[in-house]
Amino acid sequence: MDKTLTISQQHIQQRLDVFCKNQFPLHSRASLQKLIKEGAISVNSRTVKPGYLLHLNDIVSVNLTQSVRPELPPAELPVIPIIFEDQDIVVINKPAGLLVHTDALHEPSVAAWFAHRYPNLSVGEDNHRPGIVHRLDRDTSGVMVLAKSPLAFQQLKQQFKKHFAKKEYLALVFGKPGGDDGRINQAIIRSKRNPSRRTIVPKNKSSLFTGKMAITEWRIEKVLSNNFTLLRVYPLTGRTHQIRVHLHFIAHPIVGDHLYTFKRQQSPVGAKRQMLHAEQLTIKLPNGNRKSYRAPLPEDFTAVLQQLHYDYNPSTDTNQPVSFRTPSSFQAKHISKPSKQKY
Question: Are residues 138 and 284 in the same domain?
C-alpha cells in the first residue's frame, strides 16, 4: 500500500512514528519504526529517524509493502500441525521452541512458515509478521490463529486487543496454591534490572512505576505427587509473559521456566522448557460464529505428567470452565468472583 500524507498544523512537532501509529492503528509502533529505518516511510523523499519531529507541509510517503518477507529454504521450514483452516484463518498447534516472528530473515518462525505456505497473501502489519494477530512465547506450545484475509486480520486483532478472545492454558507449577481457584490482579512492567524479564508493579510505588493492567484466573486441574500441581489458567488480558510472571508472583512458578524461578527448585526429568501449553482458544469468526479450537498436549509435556504418575485426558479430566467476564463487565474491573484466593 502506497500513501502520501501532508502534515497540517495539528501535527507539527509530533514524532514521525507516533504520527504513523495514529494513521495506521492496525500496525504496531515497533513495526512502523522498523519501516521508517528501512526507508519504507520517508519524509520529503529522505530517510529519517523514527523520532523525527514533523514540520508544516512535510510530505510523508508510506510504502507498507516494501519490506522483504522472511524466506527460508524448504528443508529448514518448521513442521507445524494445522488444526483448522478456511479462506479466512488457519489455526495451528505451535511447537515449543519456535518463535512466532523475528526480524532475522532466515530464522525458523511461524511467520516464515506462513509466508512460505501462502506466498500470494499479503496480510499483516508488515512483511516480517504475515498473518500474525497474537503471539505465544518461544517455549510455550499450543493453539494459535493466523489471519489469511484482511477482514479476518482486522477483526482478530481487535478481539485480542479488547480481550474478547477466550484463552485457556495448562501450566505445571511447583507446590500447591491455597484454595481450589484464584484470581491475580497485578499490573506488569518491564524489569529495569533485566529488560528480558517482566515484573509486578509494587503497589506502594508512585505513578512513575505505572505498568499495564493484567488479570489472570486459575483453578486446580490436578494435585500431583512430589509437590507439583497442574493448573488450568485463564489470562483475561494478554501481557507479555503474563501467566509466567503472575504464577511466579504467587510463589508457584511454572516448572522448567528458567526466567521466572526460585533457587533450589528441582524440575522433573524431561522438563527442559516451561511447562505451559495454550490448550484452547475461542474466537469470533468473520462469518459471525463463535468457535473454540483445542491443541492436544505435546509429547514432552505428557511425558513429564506421566513421570508424576498422571495420564492427562481432556475428554474425561476437563471440568466445566470458569465463567469469563463479558467485555463490558471486564472493563468495569470491579466484578467479583467467588475465588478463594485473590492477589
Answer: no
- Residue 88 is a catalytic residue: no
Query: Could you tell me the CA-to-CA distances from 14 to 18, 46, 58, 167 in Å, in that order?
Result: 7, 17, 12, 37
What dihedral do alpha carbons 280, 284, 285, 290 form, nearest 10°?
80
DSSP-derived secondary structure letter, 37: H
Domain boundary among 63, 90, 106: 63
In angstroms, rounded to a whole number, what is the distance separating the alpha carbons of residues 309 and 297? Answer: 16
Alpha-carbon gap, residue 128 to 324, rounded angstroms: 33
pTM exceeds 0.70, yes or no: yes
Q: How far apart are CA 214 and CA 22, in angstroms?
A: 24
Q: Which of 112-126, 192-206, 266-280, 321-335 has the highest mean pLDDT?
A: 266-280
Taken in order 164, 160, 198, 201, the sign of the CA dihedral is: negative
- For residue 194, the enclosing domain spans 166-342
Question: Which candidate in 17, 58, 137, 300 is catalytic?
Answer: 137
Q: Return all residues near 9 (Cβ < 8 A) that are at least 6 apart.
A: 56
For residue 249, the one-letter residue type is F
Asked if residue 128 and residue 29 are part of one domain, the reply reads: no
The strand order across the sheet containing 41-43 reads 2-6, 59-63, 41-43
DSSP codes, 112-152: HHHHHH-TT---BSSTTSBTBSS---TT-EEEEEEESSHHH
Could you report the per-residue pLDDT of 133-150, keeping only the tens digit for each?
999 999 999 999 999 999
